[in-house]
Amino acid sequence: MTHLQVGDQAPGFEAKNQLGEVVRLSDYRGKRLILFFYPQDNSPSCNNEVCNLRDNYQLFQKQGYELLGVSPDTEKRHQNFIKKFDLPFPLLADTDRAIIRAYGLWGEKKFMGRTFDGVHRTTFIINKKGVIEQVFTKVVTKNHAAQILEEV
Fold this sequence. Notes:
5 helices, two-stranded antiparallel sheet
């Protein structure tokens, strides 16, 4: 699980989004950011999470938040995922898992009796100065927007 806590400076990053455009954390300086990490495109829980965030996207925008998703999927997979679910926010292709590791989210997981390495589903709320305001490690995928909105 992540070593980052409320009050920590969010680790800087640089990666390509679904369009191949370079995105940096510094691009969000002066903005409030919901940075969510998820294991992979087109898995049932991930589909639930992104669709729930999509359905509440306007509420986040009204409160001044930008959304940015991160997974180890490729730009092409993200393009298809965004198109399939009509997602209004960008997704970063962290294929080398550099961002995932910087945020302490790559590690051992257990699922259906199996143990394997993977991405720990986690969401960070980052303020205008790049400081972490909230960390969600127990994400309820079908109702993640409500989890976030209760805290912000």
